[in-house]
Each structure stands twice: as structure tokens, then as C-alpha cells.
Amino acid sequence: MTLFLSRPEEYDGGELVVEDIFGAHSVKLPAGDAILYPGTSLHRVNPVTRGVRLASCFWWIQSMVRDDTQRTLLFDLDMATNQVAEAVPEHRVVIALTSCYHNLLRGWAEA
């Protein structure tokens, strides 16, 4: 995780560039905002051409669910459940899907 401490207008350049399977993503966020990215992603910071860029890059976070495929499935299930809940509020299938999500999370989470 990278936490941005400087306001974007205080410096030129200095974008955080994160590379993943989808390509390179350039990020320059407001002070106090943070970006999370997998530890397996290559990242770099473009040169600062004006001002000072302050950021904290010393944050390591581990998901409760270590396996990326399982995390992706949980995310997809959660998004689908939210879509159903929006389309058909208070339908009993929303409760069933939510129960599946939480049971999978409990089963895949590390103690």
C-alpha cells in the first residue's frame, strides 16, 4: 500500500506507476488517499520535476484469504449479490447468497 502525503498540486511528476497483468497504471492521489496493490506487482515512482512528493510506501497488508483465486471468487460473488439485492430488494435469495459468501470466507480465511 502507498499512502500519499503531499497534495498533487504541490509537485509535478512523481506518479506512482504500478504494473500488473493488465499493464501499467499511473496514480497520483490527493493527500491522505492510499492505493492498495498486490505485492507481486512491480511499481516505481516517476521523477519529481517540481516541488516535493511525500508518501509512505512501507505498508504491507495481508488479506484474510491468501489465495488470489479465492479472493476473486469472493469479490465476484459479493458483486453479484449486491446486483441481485439492488434489482430485487429483500428477496430471500440475497440472504442465501450472503450466507454462501460468509461460509466461504470463514472456510478460506486464515486463523
3D architecture notes:
It is a single chain. This protein is α+β, with helices and mostly antiparallel strands and 111 residues long. Helices cover 33% and strands 25% of the residues. It contains two helices and eight strands; from the N terminus they run E-E-E-E-E-E-E-E-H-H. It has helices spanning 68-87, 92-108; strands at 2-4, 11-13, 16-20, 23-27, 34-35, 42-45, 48-51, 55-56. A three-stranded antiparallel beta sheet has the order 5-1-8, with no helix packed on it. Strand 3 (16-20) and strand 4 form a beta hairpin. Helix 1 (68-87) runs antiparallel to helix 2 (92-108). It is elongated. The protein starts with a strand and ends with a helix. The model has no long low-confidence stretch (mean pLDDT 92).
